[in-house]
Amino acid sequence: MAEAAAAVGLWLAVVNGPNLGRLGRREPGIYGTESWEAIQARLERWWRPRGVALEFFQSNHEGRLVDYLEAAADRGCGGVALNPGALTHQSYVLADCLRALPMPVVEVHLSNIFAREDFRARSLTAPAAWGQVSGLGWLGYHLALEALWRRQRPGGEAEA
Ligand code: DQA
User: Fold this and answer.
1) Which is deepest, 10, 136, 143, 159, by most CB within 10 Å?
2) Where is this site: Transition state stabilizer (predicted)?
């Protein structure tokens, strides 16, 4: 995938943290009924014909996420849509990792983290990200990719 991505020029990563591999089965009333695999297929269907290669990664382990993100940077990743799961609220490790990455990161949350328990309203990782999307379900990943894609194009951020 990464090789194919390099051939088309731009590759973006979509990364999910702990407990997000079980989307569709995990509290569907909050996180939706669509599986992580179905979301990947949706994103592929839209972005592949537009010449943007996507790489997907999910891990329940903080260190594996850091390893993946650092390796992605070394492989020329152009940007990351990242849902850190609960690490959002507790991981200085991940926040420090994001600060050191050369590529932009958009933090994504399926649910509106500001409308839930108090502990969720605080994100340690968002200040280290370029931007954040929260509460729009799977569409958040798509919008994060749209922002990252536009950022790579001359004048792209200003396009309507
Ligand atoms: C989440 C919100 C987090 O608070 C939670 O721990 C998750 C999912 C979301 O996508 O809404 O695992 O990141």
Assistant:
1) 10
2) 26
